[in-house]
Amino acid sequence: MVHAPMPRASLAVWSLACCLLSLTLLTAGGCAGPAIRSQSPEIEALAQLEEGTKLVGDYTAPWGLAPKRIEGPALVTGLADTGSDPPPGPQRAALLATMQARGVIEPNSLLASRTTSLVWVHGYLPPGCRKGDRFDIAVEVPASHDTTSLAGGWLMETRLAEKAVVGNVIRDGHELGVAEGLLLVDPVSSGTLDSKSGLRALVPGAGVSLADRELGLIIAAEHRSFAMSKRLGDWINRRFHTVVKGVKRGVANPKTDRYLELQVPHLYRHNLGRYIRVVQCVAVVEPSEGRHARMQLLARQLADPVTAPAAALRLEAIGKDAIPILRQALESEDDEIRFAAAEALAYLGESVAATHLAEAARTLRSARPAALAALSVLDDARGIDALEDLLTSRSAETRYGAFRALQRLDPGMAMVRGEPLGDACRLHVLDVAGPPLIHSTRRDRPELVFFGAEHPVSRGLRAEAGRSLVIVVDGPMATVSRFVPGQSDQTAEVPAEAAAIVRAIIDLGGGYPDAVQFLQRAAAGRHLTSRLAFDALPNAFDGRPAIHDEATARDGEDSPDASAARSGEGRTDERS
């Protein structure tokens, strides 16, 4: 008997019913295996192979990645009668004790002067910082003080330490930093123009670390032993090396049964988060089928945008053997897959990734910080050419990020070397194409970067810069004048061009805050046609928190062991 063929609609219903029945039967198996298994025995075998692989991250958790806040009272001097005598309290008592310890004569009289103010200073030591590294400083006048403005002030040298509350008393920890410098009171760029804006200030890069910060891995409680600590260290050291005092050695140092200290290889020094993730992807136990079969599975996962980022990290942890697979993924039509592969290749020293990373920096805003960080390790012609091309972008974030990446590759490169303006700041004028842009930073260092050779200031500008400088533009020339009571007036006439005016401000005794104020006033009055941008750098690019943010996590203050004990461990366009 011949049956008529099943109608197409009925066939679709029958197929759906079969699929649902299969899912029901598989789900009934409980936790014995995955709810849905591949129809391909080959893929299923590969999945079982991956399940049998044990990684460093299966036994450990990172330690030392949280920024460490340090703080203390300090004295600001040089105010224009806007300071105040601080009220009695623990902050005044702490500052007086410090001043007396340093031999300051009549400290109470100094505190009572209207040219001084007590302030509270804080900064964050970034993860992995070394002794002598610089960090940013935030300054604020405490509540209930009568100081009206910190503009023009100088932060006297102050020692910073961790603070802890013990029995309702603030206790100091070890001194971990020191800070000093000219205050940048800059409410316009931060977008917070309020009655308290003059009582907050920044000092970019003014902090100096007095100690190294450790970075490492804490072994989960159920796996702790000296044998496991050594085993993990051996596997990590097979993959990663660094140079310490001219000697090449492994990065992992098993210090106890629960803690491994990690050194940071040169390539990862500006991307500690990725370094830790890759270290945790190093295989400790691989099935007898071997690494080749495992890489087959990772190659399949790399071809899927959902699993590509994790697969790229695991391939990067394998090392040079994984390069052919990652190179092949660069041919994918999916931009997320290409970026994941290119980022891993950059940290494996493959400059073929440069053009793909530059593409991601331009078109994938979410990937831009990581793409720029990866480009900053490609120290060859391809990497440099890709970054120089990004200097012409429409995006301020992309342009300044590319500039910073070039600085990391080689600070002495002619393109990014710039010129020092006394001790005030560095000025960089880049003769590049693209919309004219002026960038000012309040982080890391006082620095002005002019993208484009010409930034004219139009006629009619009259602006103050600080307490003593006045800039007047009337025609093709600008007059910069300095008026200080008791001193003869000083005047400089320069072309009505932003960079020339900034140089004149510094030459006449002004500081970085004065130069920034001039640029702000010129832009606000529409006398500066160039775009003015501030801190157009993704936080993730250097892994540092904004200095006014609170740390979201705290490290163990005493040691990694103390930390473990307390925790009970076990597509965008270019306009942005």
Describe what you observe in this structure.
- With 576 residues, the chain is α+β, with helices and mostly antiparallel strands.
- It folds into 4 domains: 60-64 and 215-285; 68-209, no CATH class; 291-417; 425-539, no CATH class.
- The strands form 6 sheets. The chain has a 6-stranded antiparallel barrel with strand order 3-4-5-8-7-6.
What amount of the residues lies in strands? Answer: 15-25%
- Strand line-up across the major sheet: 3-4-5-8-7-6
Secondary structure class reads alpha+beta
Count every helix, treating DSSP H or I runs of 4 or more residues as helices. 20
Percent helix: 25-40%
Low-confidence stretches: 1-39, 189-193, 543-558, 562-576
Primary descriptors:
six-stranded antiparallel β-barrel; five-stranded mixed beta sheet; disordered N terminus; 35% helix; alpha+beta; 4 domains; 576 residues
Entry summary:
The chain is of the alpha+beta class. It has 20 helices and 23 strands.
Write the layout of secondary structure elements.
Layout: H1 8-27, H2 41-51, E1 54-55, E2 60-63, E3 68-77, H3 90-101, H4 107-112, E4 117-125, E5 134-140, E6 154-166, E7 169-182, H5 187-190, E8 200-209, E9 216-219, H6 226-239, E10 241-244, E11 247-250, E12 252-254, E13 259-262, H7 272-280, E14 283-285, H8 291-302, H9 308-318, H10 323-329, H11 335-347, H12 354-363, H13 368-375, H14 381-390, H15 396-409, H16 414-417, E15 419-421, E16 425-430, E17 437-440, E18 447-451, E19 462-465, E20 469-473, E21 477-482, E22 490-495, H17 498-507, H18 512-524, E23 531-534, H19 539-542, H20 560-567
Helix pairs in contact: 2-8, 7-9, 8-9, 9-11, 10-11, 11-12, 11-13, 12-13, 12-14, 13-15, 14-15, 17-18
